Amino acid sequence: MPDKLPTQFYTTIDEFVLESGEIIFDATVAFIIKGRLDILRSNVVVICHALSGSADFEDWWSLLFSGNEKAALDPERFCIICCNCLGSPYGSSSPVSSKPGDGTAFYGPSFPKTTIRDDVRIQKYVLDQLGVRSIHSVIGASMGGMLALEWSLFGEDYVRSLVLIATTARQGPWAIAWAENQRATIKADAKYREGFYTDDPPVAGLGAARMSAMLSYRTHKSFDKRFGRRRLLARSVEDVRPGDNVNPCTSMSLEGMSLSGHRSNKQPTFAVQSYLRYQAEKFNERFDTNCYIHLLDKIDSHDIIRGRYENLSDGDAMEAVLRQIQQPALVVGIPTDGLYPLSEQLALAKGLPNATFYALESEDGHDGFLLEGKKLNCILKPFFN
Ligand SMILES: CC(=O)SCCNC(=O)CCNC(=O)[C@H](O)C(C)(C)COP(=O)(O)OP(=O)(O)OC[C@H]1O[C@@H](n2cnc3c(N)ncnc32)[C@H](O)[C@@H]1OP(=O)(O)O
Ligand SMILES: N[C@@H](CCO)C(=O)O
């Protein structure tokens, strides 16, 4: 967490009609702005966050906006806006919001399903309220890239360029399967109670779901390098608490040692086990289970051709939709990404008429877009210059 949280603003709409036809009453969008609108109200850069991110883009993408001449996005030049997606626990309407007209109860699992397109429509409303006339660029990675793609369909007069990172034109079967594995993991926890868990949430289920998500975000090689078969010496994972220094560099290798000589009667834990358990714990501290399931369902619904060019075959419809996106586009893929593999970004770059493709080298897989801020900044900088 940053030392000082930036000011988060809120816009509320009395009745927001979703793509499904359901209505969210008092629909709220939390957003953060850095920089100022220029006189033409057209220097806006819209940042779209990923699955578990918040509107606080400087928290998770700090290197792109550090306010110096080396950062790709200079807040002296751009007015940078990031809105929190519907269903996320970071301020916009979601399962953890109270139901209007019912001051005490939370929506919980009754919060209506929302789509990427719902987010884009409600976020445009926020920009309209701010008087934004056009957008210099919209940027997103992973789920954020899904939003950026949908944003671009407002047309080149409104969205003048786009950056798509580690994302896809439609959620494919592999990514849906990972999401399903996580939903099933959560639902296997008896505390889930169909989402009506109130003050006793399914921490074991959500934690285990985050563990498997982490496997989809990282790689064999990165775990090999970071953890190997190292074990943590005098503590088991039950003793590891957030804030403890359990970095693998400070852990000790037990390989070759007689376990019977171990001072503790607890089984030594593989560093990688401890890491995953810590990630599970960290996630439980910042996320809500109903919100998580909501967001998984939302990314599964993502399909740029849904309801468009229905008279054409899937392939032709995809070609036609992408051809519509005439703006200059920068498409970035991570060669080690096992969740949204490079082939999906290459297909985007091929289908978008005015796209440039870059590979972001990372050993970490999908999470490379968050972990390789410096390299990503170098790729983005020329695009914004
Ligand atoms: C207010 C908010 O929180 S806003 C939302 C913030 N989150 C987002 O924006 C979502 C996107 N972010 C993410 O997915 C992640 O934070 C990432 C990908 C950016 C980085 O993940 P991290 O977990 O920080 O990085 P990494 O994989 O290197 O793990 C480092 C952590 O694991 C701990 N760790 C490392 N090895 C071990 C081990 N063997 N055992 C236990 N813990 C370990 C480190 O001490 C460190 O702990 P810390 O997070 O308390 O400092
Ligand atoms: N680490 C990212 C991965 C999803 O793109 C997140 O938690 O949002």
From TrEMBL:
Q: Among its keywords, does the record have Transferase?
A: yes
Q: Which family does it belong to?
A: Belongs to the AB hydrolase superfamily. MetX family.
Q: What lineage does the source organism belong to? A: Eukaryota, Fungi, Dikarya, Ascomycota, Pezizomycotina
This protein is called Alpha/beta-Hydrolase
**Which residues does UniProt call coiled coil?**
none
Q: Which organism is it from?
A: Glarea lozoyensis (strain ATCC 20868 / MF5171)
Read off the SUPFAM superfamilies from this record: alpha/beta-Hydrolases (SSF53474)
Q: What's a Gene Ontology MF term here?
A: homoserine O-acetyltransferase activity
Q: Which Gene3D superfamilies match?
A: alpha/beta hydrolase (3.40.50.1820)
> Domain AB hydrolase-1, which positions?
43-371
Q: Which residues form the active site?
A: 142 (nucleophile), 337, 366
What keywords are assigned to this protein? Hydrolase, Transferase
Q: Is Transferase given among the entry's keywords?
A: yes
Which HAMAP family does the entry link to? MetX_acyltransf
Output the superkingdom of the source species. Eukaryota
Q: Which GO terms describe its biological process?
A: homoserine metabolic process; methionine biosynthetic process
